[in-house]
Design a protein that fits this description.
GO terms for molecular function: calcium ion binding. Keywords: Calcium, Cell adhesion, Developmental protein, Differentiation, Disulfide bond, EGF-like domain, Extracellular matrix, Repeat, Secreted, Signal. By secondary structure, the protein is mainly beta. About 5% of the residues lie in helices and about 40% in strands. The strands form 9 sheets. A two-stranded antiparallel ribbon has the order 1-2. Strands 3-4 form a two-stranded antiparallel sheet. It has a two-stranded antiparallel ribbon with strand order 5-6. The longest helix has 6 residues, at about 75-80.
């Protein structure tokens, strides 16, 4: 089986037919599936979509049970958590929907962890980290674009001279460089390449 565009989060099952791993969708399995929008809804109360998955939460006054349902809890109502709570050895603790969130100083609301600034994010050398609420993603560095090359996705240099996205002067030559470009004034002209006289 050959899939010309590849299957990012899935397996190639036939000519250009991908079978996506749970939590992903799209022709090349490169899109996150929003499980919270499915019918029937996977959660009884609150559902939070995460990249490739989802998490269930209960309204204040209810406790998340191991099977994903919400059970009434008087102790939970007293604590008044933002995303519901769980009983840990008889002690009520508030929950946060993902590892990229942490309990705030009040122990009830969840605040974002900036993985990009704390160094928790893992991005390859040619990608930059972009923080999101509860998570992060790796984006190609400026001057690069995501392309499917020889069986996998990679950040490839954008040739600004070919794509005509350079700002070189009319009397200058555009020279492509790795991740950027340079402008050089043509013979008989002088200047920065952006301005030639």
């Amino acid at each position: 089986a050959l899939c010309g565009h590849g299957c990012k989060y899935g397996e190639c099952m036939g000519p250009n037919k991908c079978k996506c791993f749970p939590g992903f969708t799209g022709k090349t399995c490169n899109q996150d599936l929003n499980e919270c929008g499915l019918k029937p809804r996977p959660c009884e109360h609150r559902c939070m979509n995460t990249y490739g998955s989802y998490k269930c939460y209960c309204l204040s006054g209810y406790m998340l049970m191991p099977d994903g349902t919400c059970a009434s809890s008087r102790t939970c109502a007293m604590v008044n958590c933002q995303y519901g709570c769980e009983d840990v050895k008889g002690e009520v603790q508030c929950l946060c929907p993902s590892g990229g969130l942490q309990l705030g100083p009040n122990g009830k609301t969840c605040i974002d962890i900036d993985e990009c600034s704390t160094g928790k994010a893992i991005c390859s050398y040619n990608r930059r980290c972009v923080n999101t609420f509860g998570s992060y993603y790796c984006k190609c560095q400026l001057g690069y674009e995501l392309k499917y090359v020889s069986g996998h996705y990679d950040c490839v240099d954008v040739n600004e001279c070919v794509t005509n996205t350079h700002r070189c002067n009319l009397h200058a030559e555009c020279l492509n460089t790795e991740g950027s470009f340079k402008c050089k004034c043509k013979q008989g002209y002088q200047g920065s390449g952006f301005h030639c006289a």
